[in-house]
Automatic annotation (TrEMBL):
Statement: the UniProt record of this protein carries the keyword Nucleotide-binding: yes
Keywords: GTP-binding, Hydrolase, Nucleotide-binding
Record GO terms (molecular function): GTP binding; hydrolase activity
One Pfam family, short name: IIGP
Name the UniProt record assigns to this protein: Interferon-inducible GTPase 5-like
Gene3D superfamilies: P-loop containing nucleotide triphosphate hydrolases (3.40.50.300)
Gene field: IRGC
Homology family: Belongs to the TRAFAC class dynamin-like GTPase superfamily. IRG family.
SUPFAM superfamilies: P-loop containing nucleoside triphosphate hydrolases
InterPro entries recorded: G_IRG_dom (IPR030385), Immunity-related_GTPase-like (IPR007743), IRG (IPR051515), P-loop_NTPase (IPR027417)
CDD domains: p47_IIGP_like
Annotated Gene Ontology cellular component terms: membrane
Domain IRG-type G: 36-217
Classification lineage: Eukaryota, Metazoa, Chordata, Craniata, Vertebrata
Length: 361
């Protein structure tokens, strides 16, 4: 996650023994990484499942106040951004259905403001239409990337299972994928990439392949934003997030160690506690273990929130972290309390052991 950060200026500052400048550069780099925007345009014809995809990707239930409205008829009439509930710089834009009377294909991109999007996802619940192809070609001509998503494949699988004596799910999916590709090739789309998804079972089918493709083709500085916002639906994604967080520990550690060296009574305790709380909160949010994420999970699954929080085993669990108040933890007793468990002591050990110049050179 931190591979794209240019650390040249940091290394130069450290080599010149200017640790204050190095800390300033590190903070700016971390802030830049945290605030990198990613804007994805979700488009397709009416009724293709655009709004459902927007909700599913963000982990928002259809009945949630933050949900994009869904229905059997076209519910998107204006360009609207839906922000990720945990990452405000990550936005999925629900675009009106292409090919409607109000939005003809030849004026569509101009109407939706195509220049704001990093890439487009074109969704269809059946075969990709002439309008979809026209849009894809226009996107390509304007130097943007697009990806075809064939939605509602769960419906296709159910229909095939009811109608076929020797039903084979993988064979059915392969036929759908191949049929979509042939149709796009026939319309002049070169090497089309088609991903089969179910908005109600996003972890199944081609979602992981879509993520891998986006991760590979996005600019390096945008991959961080994508990974942060990805739903935690597999061990692979969780492991990638874990490694991404680990890659930044040395930077936070160095900043913490430098602040702790300030010879002002109590100041080092306040700064260390605030930094640790902030970093751990990032981890909780990234793994959807923060309060709002757990509440959304409780609402969507019907499992009481107290039952979800009761299975948290980390010494840095939900209530423990939420009860830390960096503004009041200024005394020696507060510092001892923070170090009172093995888990918290380990975090301090990481901060001090990694917070050295050698770890950054």
């Amino acid at each position: 996650m931190a591979d794209f950060l240019d650390t040249t200026e940091i290394k130069e500052a450290l080599q010149n023994n200017n640790q204050a400048l190095a800390v300033d550069k590190i903070k700016k780099l971390l802030e830049k990484a945290a605030n990198t925007p990613l804007n994805i345009g979700i488009t397709g014809e009416s009724g293709s499942g655009k709004s459902s995809f927007v909700n599913a990707f963000r982990g928002v239930d259809h009945q949630d106040d933050q949900a994009a409205p869904t229905g059997v008829v076209e519910t998107t009439t204006e360009v609207k951004a839906y922000t990720h509930p945990s990452y405000p710089n990550f936005k999925l834009w629900d675009l009106p259905g292409i090919g409607t009377t109000r939005f003809p294909a030849d004026q569509y991109l101009k109407h939706v403001g195509f220049e704001r999007f990093d890439f487009f996802i074109i969704i269809s619940a059946t075969r990709f239409s002439e309008n979809d192809v026209k849009l894809a070609k226009e996107i390509l001509n304007m130097g943007k990337k697009f990806y075809f998503v064939r939605s509602k494949v769960d419906n296709d699988l159910q229909n095939a299972q009811r109608s076929q004596r020797n039903f084979d799910a993988e064979q059915t999916l392969a036929l759908i994928r191949e049929n979509c590709k042939k149709g796009l090739l026939k319309e002049g789309v070169q090497a089309p990439q088609v991903f089969l998804l179910s908005n109600f079972e996003l972890r199944h089918h081609d979602f992981h392949r879509l993520h891998a493709t986006l991760e590979r083709e996005l600019p390096e500085h945008k991959r961080d934003a994508l990974l942060s916002a990805m739903p935690n639906m597999s061990l692979e994604i969780i492991e990638k997030k874990k490694e991404a967080f680990k890659s930044k520990i040395r930077y936070y550690a160095f900043v913490s160690a430098e602040f702790a060296a300030v010879p002002l009574p109590g100041l080092s305790v306040v700064v260390d506690v605030a930094l640790i709380v902030g970093v751990v909160q990032q981890y909780k949010t990234g793994f959807a273990l923060d309060g709002p994420s757990l509440q959304r999970l409780a609402d969507s699954t019907g499992v009481p929130l107290k039952d979800l929080t009761s299975v948290l085993r980390s010494p840095l669990s939900l209530n423990t972290i939420n009860n830390i108040n960096p503004k009041t933890s200024t005394s020696v007793s507060s510092c001892c309390w923070l170090n009172g468990s093995r888990g918290r002591l380990e975090i301090y050990s990481i901060i001090w052991n990694l917070g050295s110049i050698d770890s950054l050179l």
